[in-house]
Amino acid sequence: MRIFLCLLLVSLKLTQGVLAQEQKIKISGKVLDKITLHPISFANVILNTKDGQRFITGTISDEKGLFTLTEIIPGDYNLEVRLIGYETQYKPLFIGSNSPYLNIGDVLLNETLQELQAVEVIGVQEGLNQKMDKKTYSLATNISQSGGSILQAMQNLPGVSIQDGKIQIRGNDRVAVLIDGKQTALTGFGNQAGLDNLPSSSVERIEIINNPSAKYDSNGNGGIINIILKKEEKEGFNGKVGLALGQGALWEKEANLPGIRSQYVRTPKINPSVNLNYRNKNINFFLTADNLYTQTLNKNEFVTREYEDGSAIHQQLKRNRNTNFFTSNLGLDWKIDPTNTLTISGLFGSEKIIDKGDQPFFTKDYSERLRLWQFLEDEIKTTVMGSLAFSHQYVDPGHTLSAALNYTFHREDEQYFFTNTLPTLIGEDAFKLLSDENVVDATFDFVKPQRNGRYEAGFKIRRRWIPTNMQFFPGLNSPVDSLAGGPATYKETIPAVYGNYTYETKKIDAELGLRVEYVNLKYEVNPNHPTYTSDGYSYFQPFPNSRISYKIDGNNRITGSYNRRVDRPNEVDIRIFPKYDDAEIIKVGNPALKPQFTNALELGWKTVWNSGSLYLASYHRSVNGTITRISTTYGSSNLIYAIFQNAGKSYNSGIEIIYDQDINKWYSFDLNLLGYKNQIEAYSVENLYPYPHTFDATKQEIFSGNFKLNSKFKFSESTAGQLTIIYLAPDIIPQGKIKHRFSLDMGIKKTIQKGKGELFVNATDLLNTMVIYKTINGNNFSYTSADYYETQVLRTGYNYNF
After folding, report:
1. Please, which residues have CB within 8 angstroms of residue 231's CB and are 6 or more apart in sequence?
2. Nearest residue to 174 via CA among 214, 141, 218, 139
3. From CA 251, how far away is CA 237, in angstroms rounded?
4. What three-state secondary structure class fits 2?
5. Which of the residues 37, 108, 134, 517 has an alpha carbon 20 to 30 A from that of 731?
6. Does the residue 129 lie in any domain?
């Protein structure tokens, strides 16, 4: 905490700022004769500054009296409507920050000499820094993480941290990850699978949504991360090609225990990418393709287990990983006519993973090796997604009706081969897992702009089924539980409806929504399974959300929000098969696992000035039915079984600060400080595997947080740099604690070839300090661990735009 506070004081003496980037909006309306209510064609509609001294934009009404003004920045204006034979009408016009469209309704003109009454028109716009419901970050400015995976690119974003390969928002790893607003098998339906292998080169920007509205699926109590893929808006043929090269594990952090194969050093990383786009008046064709090949020291964890009888075991789990992940996204936007658009897109991903692992076990004084567990994992993951979307644009901009149908297929084909070397024998074991995930989503959405906001409503139905089969092939004196295999099928049906309304005046900005969801889940297992039987659950639940903002003045805003969310167990959480990537710490699912429900409150204040901004937020989340892994032993065995359970109630309360400031023309920074209290109430659970036994846990609580400082340098018009400092304070984990972590990242980018080319060099964990230290306390054991996995990577790359 002393380090944390010192960094805070130092950083507040520095200053950077990021000027707000305003998204543009459209204003629509209709000009009518006040007496006859007939449309008036060719009326001049002019938007001026508030004082009327400067012209902003203008248009004329069409044969139906309709008009549209585009590219408007939020602020105060004066609207002028004039036509010969009618009195000119002047209207004060306020453009807010709540919606991308504004329908001001009818504008009534009187014939000459008739008196007009003033009308206040309220518009809204969804700007990057105006609303406080989400934060948006462009990866183009994330120089220190260029050329890596999406997971790596996220780790220096405000409020986001990475732990055990999972994203955490404000210390919570129950995060829903979307691609272009949709859940996909690439990121996981309900989890975060695959993010460390997806290249960041295909990503335009990332949105962090702490308090999602009702239009989003209700899962993800930690929040939502929406990954927006690149799609060019310019007309004609254009695109981007790039190549990033890297090398990691530059030196050995911690040497192997005796008698095992070498760990990876100087591991290569290769990422070619291409982004092509052709756009004309009616057609937009896009294609992106990336291939990310990496060698990685994926794990190098040293563990000491101590038992109540005084015995102890020292072990190391070293895993060398080769990964090749190819992804491509192909699509077509077809503007059938001025009001109807059809989008057809397909996504394909193929991931090949080879893991070679070694795990030796030694006695307390290292005098005897008890076991050498060596494994080879050969895994292929294939993802295919097809999408068909139709959108109808009514006459008023922003008034839309849309429908979409998405189908996703994801195959997981794994083979494991084990060599179990004991002092008196050697055994050979294997197993094969085949899992086919199928997901069909059908959605309907309706949006209607209003004078003071907009209505949104929609319907979604999901059908998801996953047949899985695990086959064990035990060898001599096998430690593998071969009876725990067999078939299992996960079936899930989720219909949901939602309604959402936003409202805005000069002082008040509000949103109110409700999503109602029904879930029916069935998990059918092999009837001969020695422990588990088929299970499932169903519920019919409301998930409300609300947000209200008070605009103190043009630079200050206070916002309060509330929402209720759910986290349903994913298929891998309830999977009945024991996983043997660790020979003596075995992970098993739980088909009786139930959802966890969360209530979240947040209060935030934001102030902006010419050179920066400050955002302060306090929040509280309470969770009922907390999902977590529980580690226990059974009987006289030293084996540890880590099994998912509902562990009762937990709480997370904290304060977040995001401070942006420009110092001068060449230096700026953004600072993120997060402090929170994690609390897990006392609980008692029964683990059924391998045989029923109970575990009682006492209350856990800790004050934790993190600190991130992104310093940005502009050395010249063509050269920029970034230096990132990340400090993660100690935190609690199920049954234990994780110690503090620290890293330093840096990068330099230079624009060449008249702005079309770009060169970059960067380094993650430059000082090689990122090590994961943990302590776990079980029913009759405790263990400490230190994971010296690969974190330091040097990269260089080149991108060319055409």
Report:
1. 204, 277, 284, 286
2. 218
3. 45
4. helix
5. 134
6. no
Whether 186 maps to a domain, the answer reads no
Separation CA 39–CA 31 (nearest Å): 6
Preceding omega of 272 cis (within 30 degrees of 0): no
Tally of CB atoms within 10 A around 289: 17
**Any idea which residue has 């295999």 for tokens?**
485
CA 326-327-332 angle, to 5 degrees, is 150
Rg of the chain taking only CA atoms, in angstroms: 29
Same domain, 530 and 391: yes
Q: What is the 3-state secondary structure (H, E, C) of 492-529?
A: EEEEEEEEEEEEECCCEEEEEEEEEEEEEEEEEECCCC
Task: Find the CATH number of the domain harbouring 70.
Answer: 2.60.40.10
DSSP β-ladder status, 627-632 and 640-646: antiparallel
- Output phi, psi for 753, to 5 deg: 55, 50
Here the tokens at position 387 are 């999408």
The answer as to whether 119 is a domain residue is yes
Q: Region 182-186: what's the mean pLDDT?
A: 70
Helix or strand run (H / E) with residue 393: strand 369-393
Structure tokens belonging to residue 383: 């993802």
CA proximity to 348, closest of 297, 405, 287, 395: 287
Please say which residue of 123, 155, 184 terminates a domain. Answer: 123
DSSP element (H, E) containing 13: helix 2-13
Is 97 in the same domain as 243?
Answer: no
Average pLDDT estimate for 377-396? 92
| DSSP 3-state of 589 | coil
d(CA 569, CA 353): 25
Q: Could you say which of 96, 123, 150 is where a domain stops?
A: 123
Number of structural domains found in the chain = 2
pTM: 0.79
Q: What residues does 504 pair with on adjacent strands?
A: 509
> Residue 296's Cα: distance from chain center in Å?
23
Q: What is the CATH number of the domain that holds 254?
A: 2.40.170.20
pLDDT one-digit tens code per residue, 292-330:
999 999 999 999 999 998 999 999 999 999 999 998 989
CA 450/CA 398 separation, integer angstroms:
10
| Residue 295 counted as domain residue | yes
> 137: which strand partners?
206
Ranges of beta strands (E only) in 129-235 are 135-138, 160-163, 166-169, 175-179, 203-209, 223-229
Query: Cβ(515)–Cβ(542) under 8 Å?
Result: yes
pLDDT of residue 666: 93
Which one-letter amino acid corresponds to residue 654? G
Per-residue confidence band for 234, with pLDDT thresholds at 50, 70 and 90: low
CA–CA separation, 745 vs 771, rounded Å? 15
Full domain range(s) for residue 324: 236-801
Query: Does the structure show a pLDDT above 90 at 588?
Result: yes
Helix (H, G, I), strand (E, B), or coil: what is residue 616? strand
Closest CA to 474 of 418, 422, 526, 517: 418
Per DSSP, the residues of 766-798 read TT----EEEEEE-SSEEEEEEE-----EEEEEE
Let me know whether 113 and 256 are in one domain: no
Residue type at 630?
A: I
Averaged over 737-760, what is the pLDDT?
92
Nearest to 357 by CA among 313, 268, 306, 420: 420
Higher pLDDT, 70 or 730: 730
Backbone angles phi, psi at 318, to 5 degrees: -110, 130
